[in-house]
Amino acid sequence: MTEKRGFVREIELPQIHDPRGDLTFVEGGNHLPFDIARVYYLYNVPVDAERGGHAHKELEQVVFALSGSFRIKVDDGNEQRDYWLRDPRKGLLISRMIWREMDSFSQGAVCMVLASQRYDEADYYRVYDEFLKSLGHG
After folding, report:
1. Active site residue 54
2. For residue range 49-71, what is the model confidence (pLDDT) as tens digits?
3. Buried-most residue among 25, 44, 60, 136 (CB within 10 A)?
4. How far apart are CA 112 and CA 95, in angstroms?
5. Which one of the listed residues 17, 31, 54, 137 is annotated catalytic?
6. pTM
């Protein structure tokens, strides 16, 4: 995925081991290239459900599987790639102008997203062909 239009990068957060359990933390502007403006999470997702199916014009986000696992498919208009998220310390940083789709949720999966902006419907491309057209394809 090229950084010219958009990019995807795996990130790993710190982990503090303790006999009572592990602790992981995240700091906006330190572990992430943006300050966190919004946090949301998905849970009780049926195993055959698909989520995402959009791109953002400006928003950046990091996606984590806090529990269980799921697949996230990303597409920059030229290249598609699949990532499997299953480790709560490892997230997927998705920049602006990257189409994303999520599926193959395990039973009990919990997906947490840290976003660079508050919700704004005008920031979304929800139709794939419109996303491609904005990139100069078609």
Report:
1. yes
2. 999 999 999 999 999 999 999 99
3. 60
4. 16
5. 54
6. 0.91
